[in-house]
Each structure stands twice: as structure tokens, then as C-alpha cells.
Amino acid sequence: MKISSKGRVGYLKTRSFSFNKRKQGVDVLSNLKGGTVSKVFEIVEPYAKELGLDIWDIRYLKEGASYFLRIFIDKPEGITIDDCENLSRAIDEPLDEADPIKEAYFLEVSSPGLGRELLKPEHFERYIGEKIKAKLYKSIDGQKELGGILVDYEKGNVIIECNSKRTVLEKGDYSKINLDDFDF
User: Fold this and answer.
1) Per residue in 104-162, pLDDT tens?
2) I need a surface site. Which of 32, 113, 156, 158 has the fewest CB within 10 A?
3) CA distances (Å), 137 to each of 50, 99, 143, 145, 174, in order?
């Protein structure tokens, strides 16, 4: 079981395979584009739907010497540790059978947490009217971060309002956008 200090609830399960199959120097990003995440999504999504969960994001990455398959889930009323555990248990055997990942990896199932990253059009559309924070590639008015209210999302453009001023950000203008929901 894993509970992160980043406001996430999660369940951690160690997955192990034969290390003689492990490839040295595997480029995980090419695996993402090459279909690993798509294959995992196809396997996991029916089980998530059956449990009343949405797949927020799936990431397969290498950190140090270890590989991680991270599945972020959500539902309108929020995620519990039981949701994470139930999905992890439900997908255990199907992932073993399909074997979409050849390396040994850690499977983590968790919520996207507070301050979740908005990635897909449906994420942006769901949070119109909410506070967000964008990390920019180039500064705007001397700032590399821009915060405000998400006014609209249209054809990949994000419209943020801050101090009665609207700014349109194209996808190439920002590295990431997160909810800014840390008001306690």
C-alpha cells in the first residue's frame, strides 16, 4: 500500500519478471509512443469502467534502475484506497496474461491527486471555471508561470483569465497545466 505526500491515494504492487529478459538502455518514451501505454489502456479500461472509474492517465517510465507503470484513476466523488486496490487486483491477471511490458516494473494505481495535471481535452473541459496554473516555455510579462481561471479550452488553446485580463495559450506555449486547488 502506498499513500503519497502529494495528496494522492494509491496502491502499490511489485511486479517481477525474469531479469534475463530485461533490456539495457530501454527508451521508455519511445515505448509510450510505440504503443505500450495504448496496450495497457486497452487492457485496463474495461475493468476500470466496471468498477465505476475513469482512467485519468497512464505513464510508463524509468526512474533510476526501476520501471514504473502508473495508472491514475478518477471518479466524480473522489478516489479511495479501496478503489485503487480493487482496480489493481482486477487488472493483475489480465496484465500478466497480455504481458505488454517485458521489463520488470512496479505497478502503481492512484488518484491524480490535488493539483492534478490537465492533459486531455476532456480534462480541460471538465475544469472550466476552476483555478489553474500553467508553466510556460517563454515568459509572459516577465512570468514563467501563469495562474488564473480556466475560461475556455478550444481547439487545443487554453484561455486563462487573471485580474480581468484574458490570455490565450497555444499548446506550444506551456509545458504543463495543473489545477491550482490548494486552498485550505
Assistant:
1) 999 999 999 989 999 999 999 999 999 999 999 999 889 999 999 999 999 889 999 99
2) 156
3) 40, 37, 10, 9, 5
164: alpha, beta or left? (left if phi > 0; alpha if psi -120 to 50) = left
Instruction: Give whole-number Cα distances, 40 to 92, 102, 119, 177, in Å.
Output: 11, 12, 18, 24
- Cβ atoms of 14 and 24 within 8 Å: the answer is no
Q: What domains can you pick out in the chain, each with its CATH number? A: 2-110 (3.30.300.70), 121-179 (2.30.30.100)
Whether 13 has a pLDDT exceeding 80, the answer reads no
Provide the whole-model pTM.
Answer: 0.76
Amino acid at the residue 179: L
Mean pLDDT of 71-86: 95
Percent composition of the chain: helix, strand, coil (DSSP 3-state, to 5): 30, 40, 35
Q: How many CA atoms lie within 13 A of 100 on its CB side?
A: 21
**For residue 184, what pLDDT is reported?**
56
Element (H, E) at 90: helix 81-98
